[in-house]
Design brief:
This protein is α+β, with helices and mostly antiparallel strands. The chain contains four helices and five strands; from the N terminus they run βααββααββ. The longest helix has 21 residues. The structure holds adenosine-5'-triphosphate (ATP) and magnesium ion. Magnesium ion binds next to α2.
C-alpha cells in the first residue's frame, strides 16, 4: 500500500501546505501540469470548506494503484455541522455563507470520482479520486 499522507486543516495558513503536498504527490503519480493544477484547486476548495464550515478537519492523500490504472485519492474529513442538503450543495451558485457556491461543484468536475457522506451534527467525509490518463 502506498503511503497515506495526512494534513491537518484548521485555518488559512494550512491551505498552502496542503496544496504543495497535493502537487508533490500528483507529480509522483505522473500527472501533467493541467491535471496537477486541477488537483491543487480541488484540494484547496475542500480545505477551504473545512475551515469555513467545520473549523477543524483533516485531508488524506494517497496514491492508488489498480491493475490497469493509477491515480491520486483525496479524502476530506471533518466533524463539523455536516451538509444539510447534499444535492443542493452540488448546484453551482448554492452557498449558505454568501460564498460563490462553486467550490464543491468544481471539485466534482475536476476530479474523476466524487462522493459525499455527511451527517448533521456529526461531520462530513468527501471522497475523491483523480485517475491518470
Ligand atoms: N465540510 C463542510 N461541512 C459543512 N457544510 C459544508 C461543507 N462543505 C460545504 N458545505 C456546505 O455546502 C455549501 C456549498 O459548498 P461550496 O464549496 O460549493 O460553496 P461555498 O463554500 O458556499 O462557496 P465557495 O466555495 O464558492 O467560496 C456551503 O455553502 C456549505 O453550506
Ligand atoms: Mg467552498
Amino acid at each position: 500500500m502506498a503511503t497515506l499522507t495526512k494534513v491537518k486543516i484548521s485555518n488559512e495558513w494550512d491551505l498552502y501546505p496542503v496544496r504543495i503536498t497535493a502537487r508533490k504527490l500528483a507529480d509522483n503519480v505522473g500527472f501533467n501540469i493541467v491535471d496537477k493544477a486541477k488537483i491543487e484547486i480541488a484540494v484547496s476548495e475542500l480545505a477551504r470548506n473545512i475551515i469555513n464550515y467545520a473549523e477543524y478537519g483533516e485531508i488524506f492523500l494517497q496514491e492508488v494503484t489498480m491493475l490497469n490504472k493509477k491515480g491520486l485519492k483525496i479524502i476530506a474529513l471533518d466533524e463539523g455541522n455536516g451538509i444539510e442538503n447534499i444535492e443542493k450543495a452540488l448546484i453551482d451558485g448554492f452557498s449558505t455563507s454568501n460564498g460563490l457556491g462553486y467550490g464543491l461543484p468544481s471539485v466534482k468536475r475536476l476530479m474523476d470520482e466524487f462522493e459525499i457522506q455527511s451527517e448533521i451534527g456529526k461531520g462530513t467525509k468527501i471522497y475523491t479520486v483523480k485517475w491518470l490518463r
